[in-house]
Design goal:
Strand content: 15-25%
Number of strands: 21
CATH superfamily of the largest domain: Mur-like, catalytic domain
Number of helices: 15
Strand order of the largest sheet: 8-7-9-6-10-11-12-13-14-15
CATH class of the largest domain: Alpha Beta
């Protein structure tokens, strides 16, 4: 069949295109601009068209779209008029999760890393997984960030626009439940209800991180349900004893983290298993443990957990997840996708663990006006570990600043604790400010889900060109 994918330059829809190609379909797509994602698809013989035009539908059997495109979009309107089926991303997710044993990883933070780890473990174990890890970039050890293999299906279950409610997984991992995407979930209770529904739709085990307050609340509510009505196995995991799986004896050295996995007596499982991952941060130990237990459940305990943990040793990170960008003039630059307070705290903690003796200079690009306004109180204390904090212009995504009067990076800077905080404006201004600020021995951490990752790359090029001195 011929699938057409409007918005194909985005990470989510380009992943859909890759899986459709792997399944033997003909794929075309369109967008207003091209990028590295469309270039990779073009190399796979996908026709990439410019703009959005009903003429693109010639010979098309199905249109695959994201919820970001409105119903009046010219190609969607034309498809309906022509009787061409229009499938949303969630529709395809549901179809695929019904065709294969599926492990779905959800959470307001930690899900991308956990998904990448789970996919890599299955690949190392020889299971030829299908997977979607929409990091928008490479995961070392995986062929692509999205692939349809012959084995189980591993997918990052995005809560935005309630997309994850389209899935029917056999096993779910819930890394965290925090209030985010305030344009979709106006109240904290709304996001909690969505995650509860996601768990209810899971037909088998729910592996849940009880270190996270929101996830723990969900787990406790299930424990109080009379008779655990659907007989689902809820398996808590974390960094402290919790009635399930927990990691202790954590040691971080040279960017690697080693730990011991313990099992509660009720599980009747081997305990005291030793593991090592080649990424820093206690949050990554959580992610690794959750991924390993999720894979263990997905494979119905057919592979010993120690072997699964050993398979994880090849994991070296994912794009924009504590990604080492380079070093110039003794200034190290790291980039991370962190864009809400828990992710920010975790990224700063990981940087402190990896580089305890260096001054920590942070550049943060807030993502959306609605999130900035709603979570300002949480952002206020999230950067406490930084020595210097520069805040760039808010990345608007789908929003307009006119709808959020008074919300700006300067306003956010005023709310954040600490004397070394300032707003720096656009990307050009941020690069200039960082070049003037940094000195040999610093580590620069760039944070945000927009295009602020360009700042670190541009800073490195300037420092390399300078040739001497980084001040």
């Amino acid at each position: 069949m011929h699938y057409h994918v409007p918005g194909i330059a985005g990470a989510g829809m380009s992943a859909i295109a890759h899986l459709l190609l792997d399944q033997g379909h003909v794929v075309s797509g369109c967008d207003m601009q091209q990028n590295a994602l469309t270039a990779e698809l073009a190399e796979r013989s996908v026709e990439i068209l410019h703009g959005h035009d009903p003429a693109h539908l010639a010979g098309v059997d199905v249109v695959a779209t994201s919820s970001a495109l409105r119903s009046e979009h010219p190609e969607l309107a034309a498809a309906r008029a022509l009787g061409i089926p229009v499938l949303k991303r969630a529709d395809l997710w549901r179809q695929w999760s019904q065709r294969k044993p599926t492990l779905a990883i959800a959470g307001t933070h930690g899900k991308t890393t956990t998904t990448a780890m789970a996919a890599l473990m299955l690949q190392q174990l020889g299971y030829d997984p299908a997977y979607i890890v929409p990091a928008g970039g490479a995961v070392p050890g995986l062929d692509r960030f999205a692939r349809w293999g012959s084995g189980p299906f591993v997918i990052e279950a995005d809560e935005y626009d309630r997309l994850f409610l389209g899935l029917l997984p056999q096993v779910a991992i819930i890394t965290s439940v925090d209030w985010d995407h305030v344009d979709i979930y106006p109240q904290r209770a709304d996001v909690e209800a969505a995650f509860a529904q996601f768990a209810q739709q899971t037909t088998g085990s729910v592996v849940i991180c009880t270190d996270d307050a929101g996830a723990s609340k969900l787990w406790q509510a299930e424990q109080q349900a009379v008779g655990n009505r659907d007989q689902r196995r809820w398996l808590p995991y974390g960094l402290q004893p919790n009635g399930g799986w927990w990691a202790g004896d954590i040691a971080v050295a040279s960017g690697a983290s080693s730990f011991t996995v313990y099992a509660d007596e009720r599980l009747d499982e081997p305990s005291g298993l030793v593991a090592t991952i080649h990424v820093p941060g206690r949050h990554n130990v959580q992610n690794a443990l959750g991924a390993a237990v999720g894979v263990y459940e997905l494979l119905a305990h057919a592979v010993p957990l120690q072997r699964i943990l050993t398979a994880l040793q090849v994991y070296q990170g994912a794009a924009r997840r504590f990604e080492w960008k380079g070093e110039a003039q003794d200034v190290v630059v790291i980039d991370d996708y962190a864009h809400n307070p828990p992710k920010v705290r975790a990224a700063l903690q990981a940087t402190r663990e990896r580089y305890p003796a260096r001054r920590l200079v942070v550049y943060f690009q807030p993502h959306t006006f609605s999130r900035t306004a709603a979570l300002v109180a949480d952002f206020a204390g999230a950067f406490a570990a930084a020595d210097e904090l520069l805040i760039g212009d808010i990345y608007p995504s789908r929003e307009r600043q006119a709808d959020f009067p008074g919300v700006s990076s300067a306003w956010l800077a005023q709310q954040i604790d600490g004397p070394h905080v300032r707003a720096v404006g656009n990307l050009d201004a941020a690069v200039e400010a960082l070049q003037q600020l940094v000195q040999p021995g610093d580590v620069v951490l760039t944070l945000g889900a927009g295009d602020g990752n360009q700042v670190g790359d541009r800073l490195l090029r300037r420092l390399e060109a300078a040739g001497s001195g980084a001040a």
